[in-house]
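Chain A, query sequence.
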Amino acid sequence: MRVLLVNTFHYMRGGDSRHVFGLARLLKSSGWSVSHFAMKGGRNVPCESEAHFIDEIDYAQLLGGRRYLGAAKVLWKSIYSSEARAKISRLLDEKKPDIVHIHSIRHHITTSVIFEIAKRTIPIAWTLHDYKEICPNTTFHDGKGICERCRGGNYSQVIVNRCKRGSLAASAATYLETKVNSLLKYDRHIGVYIAPSAFLRKKFIEYGYAQDRVAHLPNFLELGEFTPQYSYGDYILFLGRLETSKGLGTLIRAFTRIGAERPHLRLKIAGTGGMDRELRSTISTTRLNNVEMLGFVEGEQLLATMRNAMAVVVPSEWYENYPFSVLEAMAFGKPVIASRIGGIPEQVEDGVTGYLVDPASADDLAEKIKLLSSQPEQTLIRMGMAAREKVEKVNSPDTYLENLIKIYKQLLSVR
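Chain A, predicted structure.
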């Protein structure tokens, strides 16, 4: 059987890219023929179908110095790509896939490619890495807190509340994108949406999607890359984007409460993002000597930082889907302290593999960090072993592949 994987970035850029590369390896190992459709770029992993990829798009460069007409053309390109539609058409005719599996395609590839796939009656599966289909801002977070005011197609709220980066222009562009996609009705061509978390599936059904069109399939982790280390350092680790919705302000406030009681306990923050300068300023002015900003960390340095941590903290304040950072920490045998929100409670079992905390509560977060750091090493080892065991059971590649093939076969049976 032949499958075409569609994802904008063809290099290790984030969780969606990592998932696609791992999925390609899984499918190939079971005898499937795998092809890719993506965007060209200097960091891309070599690919035999790269000649069919769309040209690289740098929107910041395209918008620089343009007047209104030029900006309008750039905006339209981010909503509907004639280039992507033409190129995937040729690739489909060449590869003749039995299934097309879509991942992240917004703003570059766009939903335009769906119509070429549908013309050939090829079944489509779409793994949901965010909430874009039901929330114009993708996260149900408007920069201040959880927001569901667009429910029922009331998309103008994204402009009213300036949900996109607090910018009227960006929010208006997001509104236009959502309205155009709504009018195009591409959704009728999607055979099944795949939700990594039961929470995401439930949310889509709440917003009107039929239950039999949204399948729950937890993400997998290639466990051979993660050797558990049941020893625990003197620091808590945060890794991810430095954004308000990630709860970093709450995390810093929690550590100001911890400092006096746990002077030797440290917090390491790995990542970059919009809050970088603000966080550094806060740490400096409040003299938080127990907090260290690592910046962007990758490869072996990142893995070593995770292996040597006491625990990983995920203080999110938005509806997290099914974060890989939690899976990776658990695979290394690390307890996780995380917000009781979105799909996270499906991953972290309170008091067993870590602790759950109330979102945006610095007091609760501080108490749980102090509780964990006061545990004897044997308790931490027990938690770490339970975390690893859960990942092996729920998130193994074999389990994922078995259930994905069932979804594919169901799609093919009703083609």
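The two ends are 14 Å apart (CA to CA). The longest helix spans residues 377-394.
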